[in-house]
Amino acid sequence: MALVTPLSAEHDLETKELAEFFNETLGFCPNSVLTMQRRPAISKAFINLNKAVMANEGKVTSALKRMIAWVSSNATGCRYCQAHAIRAAERYGAEKEQLDNIWDYRTHPAFSEAERAALDFSLAASQVPNAVNAEIKERLYQYWDEGEIVEMLGVISLFGYLNRWNDSMGTDIEEGAVESGNKYLGKHGYSVGKHDGSLY
């Protein structure tokens, strides 16, 4: 059981309507959102921020944004968000070879230099202390414009919020997310950890 119990999807109809976004992204409304709606202003603000961050206005694809989210969540150790991010990357058309080898993005030929620069940025920005430096900036500017960099950092920052929310909450993970986590991350020892419903 999580720290706070998720409410029914029917609890707040405005949240429910906004949360239809996640049916495309994940195939279900996440328990994190169902918990946030205990204060509907939070759930609605979060969904609107999520939609804005994930909108594509440049060359950063939906699939790459979800891989950026995975790298960020992996750096912070949030198993809930790792599974969600890899599931969304698959649903948004990431290549199977990339999904199978995301742990090795720095060296695997399925990843371009532009993607590596973006994923290294995600890793550096997600560390404590923060590790973004002049070298990261130089590599980003070789492949991406400033608007695209803002989009990437929006994803990283959004998942910073989600990583803290879900790991502190011990959010119960959904079956579909478990399936995706096992499918693509299992060979590296993925487990749901504290998100199996037994934390509290």
UniProtKB/TrEMBL annotation:
InterPro entries, per database record: AhpD-like, CMD-like
Carboxymuconolactone decarboxylase-like domain mapped to chain residues: 40-120
UniProt superkingdom: Bacteria
Gene3D superfamilies with a match to the protein in the record: AhpD-like
A Pfam family it matches: CMD
Gene Ontology molecular-function annotations: peroxiredoxin activity
Designated name of the protein: Carboxymuconolactone decarboxylase family protein
